[in-house]
Amino acid sequence: MPQSEPSRGLGVVLLFGALFVLAILSQVPHFNGPDYWVWPWKSLALDRTIANFAAPFVFLVYLLRKWSASPELTARRAGWLVTGLVACSMMFQYGGFHADKRGRRLLQEIVENTAITSYYTDATHIEDLGTWLPNFANLELEHHSETHPPGPILFWFACVKLFGQHDARLAGAYLIGLLASLGTAMLYFFGSLWTTDRSARIGPCFLYALLPSIIVFFPELDTAYPIGSMALLFFWHKALDQRRAAIWLGLTLFGVSLMAYNFVTLGAAMLLYAALRLHREHWQRDAFKRYAIAAVLALAVALTAHVLLWAATSYHAIDSLRASLAIQDHFAEVYPRPWEYCIFWDIYDFLLGSGMLTLPLIALSLRRADPLANPVPIDRGMTVVALAAILIVDLTGLLRCEAARVWLFMQPLIIIPAGLQLARFGMVDRGLVLALQAIIAIVLRCKLAFIEL
Hints:
- By secondary structure, the protein is an all-alpha fold.
- It has one domain (4-226, 338-447).
- The chain has 20 helices and no strands.
- It has helices at residues 4-25, 46-68, 75-97, 103-112, 119-124, 129-132, 151-190, 198-209, 212-216, 225-239, 243-257, 267-280, 285-313, 317-334, 339-354, 358-368, 378-396, 404-407, 412-423, 427-447.
- Helix 7 packs across helix 10.
- The radius of gyration is 22 Å and the shape is globular.
- The chain starts with a helix and ends in a 6-residue tail after the last helix.
- The relative contact order is 0.16.
């Protein structure tokens, strides 16, 4: 592509991002969400946050120079870049949080606060895991715990056992930050569904290291959930050709079903991806058969794992799901969740979590593609699948009126195509976009109370 085209596109991205930053700094009404789900305005010192972001951003610029200097990356060099970006992600999370002078004390208070994340509190109430798990569906749990499987509570229970109740709060929080940053590495492998070009797949990793929703929601467990989403879709991709991968898909499905029920909505993305692959294989009967076998095998593995868990612990997954759905139905009656408003505001909140730059970057990516190409290039096809999956979840109201935190597990679907567009820019242009993304992350961290305490 000629350099002049991405340069024009860059201006659109920078202008869009700059206007968004000004709107947040000026506290323009509704830019912090709708009346029924608003992120309160706050004023955290910008200078302290900028200072905490300085070191990781300088390291990010160093990695950017290394990336841009090698148009064709070896696997080893790509590995070093991804490792560096994982470290950047951790530093941005920790640095952004510790811009608040309350520091570790605030981190402990967040973990203990049942209105923010109740898993730790419920974990400390477990006296005997052998009697607790079989009765999980009938327990009186705190707000967040009662709509989730036992996995998040068991995570904190393990932290308490490993580090002791006093130290578990900090240790568990920092462990969540580490897990969230490892999503940067998983994103590199997940990007292979779009392209095999190693250098191009580094682009999304840079954006992910600066992903605002991971920075502002630290230390919520949701920041680590994108790893489960990417693993599901990646193993589904592999399972369509390799039956062994279907086993890994089933085990992954079992694992995420113990953490959060919202992973079920990824079924839309999996079906759309299968349709894309069938289209590229000319809808052959053998392909239908192969895909059906992969799906059945994966489901069989997941169900078998649940049966084994039930046999070993008497944990009843279906009863737990029923209890969660009943509570969600109650919330739907108590809280005003107008579907027609949620269609727009849920997507807005989702884009807010991605930093908003994803919107113009993806628009540029789709604009440069040839709509008449036959067959459809895999990268464009995957982008359409990803966007369609997000829209399906939005329009059906499956996650209606949920916050950017709950939608976080779907962020990879938008970060990959946006990051691939970033990779098409030159080094200076990439640096400008990443600098603006860092500014957006800082401004969101300082001006909006995503975790209010």
